[in-house]
Amino acid sequence: MVRKGGASDERAPPSNTASSEQLAWERLLDFIACEGADPQDAYRRMRERLLKFFAWRGSSNAEELTDEALTRVAARLLEGEVRAERPAAFIIGVARMIDLEGKRRERRWVPFDESIGADEPPPTSESQRLERKRRLRRAAGLRTSSSGLSACTGNGIARRLMICL
User: Fold this and answer.
1) Number of domains the chain is built from
2) What mean pLDDT is predicted for residues 48-67?
3) Is-contact 149 103, C-beta < 8 A?
4) Domain stop point among 87, 108, 129
5) CA torsion angle for 154, 157, 160, 165 (degrees, to 10)?
6) Between 68 and 81, residue with greater pLDDT
7) What residues make up the domain containing 153?
8) Residue 159 confidence (pLDDT)
9) Is residue 98 domain-shared with residue 25, that is, in the same domain?
C-alpha cells in the first residue's frame, strides 16, 4: 500500500500562514495514522519513537530534534506529494538525516585550549609574533595562507581572546 501525504490538485495550500501550518499538521497526522487508527495516538507513538531514536544515537537535545523531524516531514507533505509504503520508516529516515547533520556540525567545533599563550611573555620579534599568530589560528581551527596571517583575522582573534600579540 502506498500512502500519499501531499498537496493534491484539488486542495492548494491556503495563503494564510496559520492555515498553512494547520493544514501541514493535519496532513502529518493523516500520514502517520494507519487506516482507522486514532491520529493523535499515532502521533504520540511516533513522537516517543523519535525521542528514543535520538536518545539512542546519543543526542542531548532529543526533544528539539524530534520537533525538527516532525516539522520537516509536515513541510514536505505540504510542499508536495510524498509516497511511502511505510510512513514511520520515512519519518525515521528524516530523523536520521537530521542526526547526521548535527554530528557534522559538532565535528566542526574544536574545544579551545585556554592554556595556549597564557604563561608566555609577549613576543619581542616579528618571527615570534607570526609564530604565535599561526598557533592561535591553528588552535582556533582557522587556515593560514602561504603569505602568513591576515592582520585583521589574527588581530581580531587575539583581541577577542585578550591576548597581546
Assistant:
1) 2
2) 92
3) no
4) 108
5) -40
6) 68
7) 112-165
8) 55
9) yes
Global confidence as pTM? 0.56
Q: How many helices (H) and strands (E) does the chain have?
A: 6, 2
C-alpha closest to that of 77 among 19, 138, 139, 20: 20
Decide: 101 and 126 in contact? Cβ < 8 Å.
no
Query: Residue 20: what are its φ and ψ, rounded to 5°?
Result: -65, -45
Same domain, 143 and 96: no
| Buried b / exposed e along 118-153 (16+ C-beta atoms within 10 A) | eeeeebeeeeebbebbeebbebeeeeeeeeebeeeb
Close Cβ partners of 148 (under 8 Å, ≥ 6 residues apart) = 130, 133, 134
Q: What are the beta bridge partners of residue 148?
A: 145
Q: How far apart are CA 22 and CA 14, in angstroms?
A: 10
149 and 123, same structural domain? yes
Q: Is the pLDDT of residue 162 over 60?
A: no
Residue 79 and residue 144 in one domain: no
**Cα separation, 74 vs 53, whole angstroms:** 19
Residue 42 CA to residue 125 CA, distance in Å, equals 69
The pLDDT confidence band at residue 1, using thresholds 50, 70 and 90, is: very low
Give residue-wise pLDDT tens across range 89-102: 999 999 999 999 98
